[in-house]
């Protein structure tokens, strides 16, 4: 049994039919073909699937697509404007805040919301704010450095 779903994704209206058990991450990746949002642990522990829903960072593997009904979703693909990377994406590139890249979309989405909520976050607060996101490559040093670089440039908003 499919159920109609209507929402906005990266500023575009989307209508689709989904099975009731379809996770938001599955809908984003499989139906919309926006594969920048990664599906890692399926238990909301790694944060690779983080997107923004109605202005909040959410782990899209832990919610049903139907829970986003009528909402506004922004994925990593929705951050780029007019061919320009979002300042947080640029900071991650400039400060080498990624290695394999698997966790990067979730880290970037979490970091943007973190600085929106707390523009003057200390290093400790940044590390604490990233607690729900796991990177198995970098040890977080350059991820934190990237966020601080973006923070210093006063470019925390999308």
UniProtKB/TrEMBL annotation:
Keyword Iron-sulfur: yes
InterPro entries: 2Fe-2S-bd (IPR002888), 2Fe-2S-bd_dom_sf (IPR036884), 2Fe-2S_ferredoxin-like_sf (IPR036010), 2Fe-2S_ferredoxin-type (IPR001041), 2Fe2S_fd_BS (IPR006058), Beta-grasp_dom_sf (IPR012675), Diverse_Oxidoreductases (IPR051452)
Limits of the 2Fe-2S ferredoxin-type domain: 3-79
One Pfam family here: Fer2_2
GO terms, molecular function: 2 iron, 2 sulfur cluster binding; metal ion binding; oxidoreductase activity
Keywords in alphabetical order: 2Fe-2S, Iron, Iron-sulfur, Metal-binding, Oxidoreductase
Main EC class the enzyme belongs to: oxidoreductase
EC number: 1.2.99.2
Cofactor(s) the record lists: [2Fe-2S] cluster
The UniProt record lists the keyword Transcription regulation: no
Record's protein name: Carbon monoxide dehydrogenase, small chain
